[in-house]
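fyi for ur records
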Amino acid sequence: MKNCMQLGLFGYALALLVAPAGAQTTWYVDAKATGPGAGTVEDPFLTIQAALIAPGFATGDDVSVAPGVYAEDLVFTGAAEGVHIRSQGGPLVTTLAAVSPSSTSVTFEDGETIEGFTLLGQGATSRGAWSPYTHSGVLRRCIVRGYGTGCENEYDMQIYSTTIAFNDVGLLHWGGGIGGDAFTDCFGVILWGNLDDSAGNGFISPWFDWVHSTFDDPDFWSDTDLHLRSTSIARDAGHLGEPLDPDGTRADIGAVAYDGNYPVGTTYCLAGMNSSGERGRIELTGTGRIAANDLGLHAHGLPPGVVSLFFIGTQAVDAPLANGRLCAGGHIGRLGVEVADGSGVASHAFDNGSSLGGAPAIAAGQTRTFQNWFRDVPAGGAESDLTNAVAVPFTP
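which gave:
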C-alpha cells in the first residue's frame, strides 16, 4: 500500500497560511431557480459561469452552488484571484458535467478553489481539472470520473480529500516539463480504477507530493457507488490537517467519508429494462433518523428528461402496474415530481415533517417504502414504468 508517504508537509501548511482570510462577497447559484437571477440568496444565478462574469465579481469572492447538475465548462476571466466555488450539498448531489467529449470542465487561472463537486466527463479527450503552464488551482473534496484525463497539471495544482477514479488517465503530472517545474500536491487522495492511474513525468519529490493518499483498492461499494465499505483502507487514514469527518473521527482518504449508516434501507423488487437500456433503481443518501431529516431520494437509470414521481408506502407489495411492478404499497403518498437529467437521474429531498402526500406521519420504529414512477413513451405499452424499491427503518 502506497499511502501515508510523509512528503510535502511544509507545502500543506503554507497553503493553509496563504488561503484567503475571508470572502468579500458570496454569490449564489441554483440550476433549479427561475432565473436569470442576480446572484443573491433570494434570486440566484442559474449557472456558475454567470457568477464568474457578473459585474462586481472580485478577488476572494465565494460562489455557493445548490445541489443539481451543471452542464458547463468553467472559464475564469483572470480578473479575480483566489475565487472559491463550493457546493452546498457535496459531490454526491452536485455535478459539474462536461459539455462535450472535448470539454475541459475546470481550467484554473489564478489560485481558484473548486470544492464539493463531482466532475463528470464524457471520456475520449475530455479533461476534468487543468492547470496550464503559469496557472494554479485547488481541488478539494471532489470526485473526478469519466474523463480522458481526470486532472492535468502543467504548473501548480493542490488536490485535497479527492477521489480520482474511472478515467482513462487519472492524474497527468508534468514535473519538470512543459516549460518549467510543475508541482502537484496530493493530500488524502484516492487514485484508483483508472485505465492508467498516473502518467507524465517527475513523480518524485520535489515536484510531486503524495501524502496520506492511496493507489490501492479503496473498497468502494461498486464502480458507480463510491461510498467506502467498513473494510476500506481509506478509513481514518486522511491527512491530519483536514477537518474531522461527520462521525467525529479522523478524516478519511477521498471525497466521500465512510458512513456507518450507508446504505440506507434495503432494496427489493428488481425493475425491468426501460427504453434507456437500463433498469430503473432507487438509491438513498442520508439517514433514517427522524430528527436529522436528511434523507435524499435518487432514481437512476431513467430515460433522460422524463417526468417522474417519487412516492412513499407503508409496506412492501408486489403487483403489476404500467410496464413494471408496484412495490411500495399500503397507504401511499405522493412526495414530489422531478424531471430526470441528461444522465437519467432524478432526485428529491425527503421531508419527514411534511404532509407526505397523504401518507401517515412516520414514528420511530416504523418502516416506510419508497419508489419512483416515470414516463416512458418510447417503451410503448402503458408508456410508464417504475424503479425498484427500498424499505427504510426509521429511528428517533
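The two ends are 40 Å apart (CA to CA). thats all i got for now
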